[in-house]
Amino acid sequence: MPSKSKNIQAHFLALFTVLIWGVTFVASKILLNESFSPFEILVLRFAIAYLVLFAIRPRFIRLSSLKDEIPYMICGVFGVTLYFLAENTALVYTLVSNVGILVSVAPFLTALLMWAVYKDRPSGMFLLGFLVAICGVMLVSFNGMHGFDFSFIGVVLAILAAAVWAVYSVAMRRINDSEQSVDMILVTRRIFFWALVSMVPLLSVYGFDVDIDSFSAPSTWLSLLLLAVGGSSISYVTWNCAMKVLGEVRASAYIYAVPALNLVFAAIILHESITGEALIGITLITIGLLISEQRKRPATLQVPRIVEAEQAYDPTGNR
Q1: Mean pLDDT per 10-residue segment, the chain (319 residues)
Q2: Cα distances (Å, whole numbers) of residue 299 to 1, 4, 119, 231
């Protein structure tokens, strides 16, 4: 069992990660407004992220067989390529608020998948925290809007994004269980490698038409570096480290905070308004996150009774 200091450090890493992911929403919005497509942003983001991690650790993980490679392939395809394609495409068909709500069920789906694969049954506190937090996410995501603009394709894609993130979490459990001593930077970089490999066949579908003039504005470079270095190179490493200590289910609960952080940073940087119901939502998300992080205490052993019973027995017959 991890020490108390490691647990505190892991909580800090998880919180730091969602803080970075909260501000990357603004960076993505800037690049989209500058005529970059979602797929072009995806390729550039993780290509730069891979190079950054390679510069930090110019070494490779040695795996004994193809079977050991499979979890890395799953993490790259599901946790990077499919997740961002599903989420960004969902935004084409439905509102950002709807996608934010639906993607926030990722912790719940992660808990269910962990239960199915590893027999780790989610606690009642986790489920209660999920219900409280998802109510907060709904208030934050709507932020003064009214109604749910239903789009079947958009809803399916948003839920698919949450589901593939759950698959990523399960695959990371396999990596953490089998590679206890491997540097997490090397692990994350290998995941990015398979993500980039899986993007190659998609070039003919989505296209990649980026020229040098696209990077003339400073806001473009700053936004892209924030996504690649902060939102990918650093954040995936810190997130994977947090999952290794806290466990995939407990760490995933921090995803509830992403919509609230998106709203706060959008208000600070893009000067978007925050309503009273959104502030209530942020409060509910915080409460739900705290509830989800509660762990069931093990039952106390009745040691005194056992000792007392042993003292009561005397083979010599003396009482």
Answers
A1: 81 92 80 85 95 94 84 96 88 71 85 90 87 84 60 84 94 82 88 97 91 82 93 95 91 85 75 80 86 62 44 47
A2: 17, 19, 20, 41
Q: Is 299 among the domain residues? A: yes
Domain count along the chain: 1
Alpha-carbon gap, residue 122 to 194, rounded angstroms: 30
Q: What is the pTM of this model?
A: 0.81
Q: Which domain holds residue 153?
A: 4-312
> How far is residue 39's CA from residue 30's CA, in Å, rounded to a whole number?
15
Measured distance CA(186)–CA(53) in Å, rounded: 8
Show Cβ contacts of residue 271 under 8 Å, excluding neighbours closer than 6 positions.
Answer: none
Residue 318 inside a domain? The answer is no
**In a domain? residue 301:** yes
